[in-house]
Prior knowledge:
This protein has 443 residues and is of the alpha/beta class. It is built from 14 helices and 14 strands. Helix 3 packs parallel to helix 9, helix 6 (173-189) crosses helix 7 (212-223) and helix 12 crosses helix 14.
Amino acid sequence: MTDAPDAYGDPVITPTPRRKPKPEITTIGGRPLKPSTLMMGHGYDPALSEGSLKAPIFLTSTFAFENSAAGKRHFEGITGKRPGGAEGLVYSRFNGPNQEILEDRLSIWDGAEDALSFSSGMTAITVMLLAYCSAGDVIVHSGPLYAATEGFVAKVLSKFGITYVDFPAGATREAMDDVLAKAKAQAAEHGGKVAMIYLESPANPTNALVDVEAMAAARDAAFGEDGPPIAIDNTFLGPLWQRPLDQGADIVVYSLTKYVGGHSDLVAGSIAGAKKWMDPVRALRNTMGGICDPNTAWMLLRSLETVELRMQRAGENAAKVCAFLRDHPKVEGLGYLGFISDPRQQDIYNRHCLGAGSTFSLFIKGGEAEAFRFLDNMTIAKLAVSLGGTETLASLPAAMTHLSVPDERKAQLGITDNLVRISIGIEDPDDLIADFEQALAKV
Length: 443
């Protein structure tokens, strides 16, 4: 044990807020500054760090108080003896300068009041779900989800009496009304509540879109003002091509490993939303740990300066590569948001999305053997899981990331043996097309 604050109070009730937030310049002449501009300095004051243009890496486990009275005031706040909560930095399991600057900048991209950083995307998801769910509760989620997320809900939370009801990503408002009614009945039967509506859009790996606006309306109709929060994994399109908080979501979730980190050299995650939704998660993070480490936070600050440029280039490349693949004789189909054939999916895209992204599913004619032959003959693209890096990545979800998903579930979700997930990078697009062409020629 340490003499950290949670030894003296209940951190699940008393989260640790920021101290003395620095007023930021976010407008000029009434004109809001763009996120790409704010990434260069928002949340950081060089005067506090010997004039260093960039934030240093703060490698410390604990922080010194200015004096004894300041230390007492901090503990009065965190134990609840004084209203207003804790003040300042005290212990690096709770917060630190690099993480706080990172969280400030992450908030900007999604127009959120607050954000929290974590050691991985799955840490963000699991701590968030644990913060909101109790025995007897029900989670409503779209499908498919990232396999680890779906596994945590179905296999781990079930050990604690938490159940779920799922629905397909492209569900209509009527279907959403039905699934929420089913979830309410299931929660009542188990003596709990509907604790969270968890979405993933576009879905991994099919790129199926969820109508967030319809779910927000269905939630409000079913529960009124006291409904559960809507959280959404925005990793595939965020933060540039989709802003789910604008469509009615309450919490936006990221694997920062992907586009935000963008260089395949770190692992991290985050959530963002209104402070009232962040506080319970922050408090549990204080207890459990799982905060992003200072070095990773510093690397993410670097990456956020170029995230718009990288995503724009990758998106332009994906459009060119998919235009080549679309009519190739050995391609059965494309799950690319720039070529949607379903009218309902196109309607959701038009209302929710600002771009088609650079991650898509490629269906090779044949099955696993043909898909393996294609993957094994690629030269520029790397055969690896993950996405959103500067390099092009390719994998076979049914045999890799989603191998643990039962076969009947994979069939239901359209995760077939010939579905290759492609994440296009920032290489020269003509070189990428040449690579795809020669690999397909060997199928």
